[in-house]
Amino acid sequence: MHFPLAYVRMAYYVPLALVPLVAMAVTRLLRPRLAALAALALTLAIAVPAWGAAGNVHRFYDFANHTTLSGMRAVSADLRPGDTVVADRCWSFLSAWLLHADTLPALDPADILPKAEVGPAAEARAILAGTPRGRALARQLHVRFILVNPLCVSQDGRRARPPRLGRPFFVSSRLVAMRLPG
């Protein structure tokens, strides 16, 4: 099964799961008119901040466009069984799903929720940095592609350094796919 880790984090779904519970409580505890007013107030309390955040969400996901998806298809066509893909923090959550391949996400420490992600994220960052340990890991894990978004910034707002391994295979403003020998 190929689930990007970001999609199985329950914290993202808790508010959605609470909606029916809150609706049941409001309709059972309040009179119909008061329940309708409470529902309207709660809807506005959620809609107003969500409306303002929509632009940020759109900008965040804007890197997955026609051009970059063409690049992902090119990478997918060249993947072989047993290959591993290393992806930066921006592409990490989409690449596993789009490529249906083992993906090693180079998450920032601030992005990591379960402790099990600490080791793989450190390995991915070492591979991106091209350290001697990263080069050895790339060979050991059969890493053939590195995916980065050149505009991706870390949690603290810094742009990541370009990968030190591989040769560009696909280049666009939002996706650089590097092919490693092997």
Q: In one word, what is the shape?
A: elongated
Rg, rounded, reads 21 Å
Main pleated sheet: 5 strands, mixed
Instruction: State the secondary-structure class.
Output: alpha/beta
**Count of helices?**
6
Which percent range describes the beta-strand content? 5-15%
Give helix and strand order, one letter per element, not per position: HHHEHEHHEEE
- Give the spatial strand order of the biggest sheet: 2-1-3-5-4
User: What share of the residues lie within helices?
Assistant: 40-55%
Q: How many DSSP E strands?
A: 5
Low-confidence stretches: 1-7
Distance between the termini: 25 Å
What value does the average pLDDT take?
Answer: 86
How would you portray this structure in words?
- The chain is of the alpha/beta class.
- It is 48% helix and 13% strand.
- The chain has six helices and five strands, in the order H-H-H-E-H-E-H-H-E-E-E.
- It has a five-stranded mixed β-sheet, sandwiched between helices.
- Strand 1, helix 4 and strand 2 form a beta-alpha-beta unit.
- The N terminus is likely disordered.
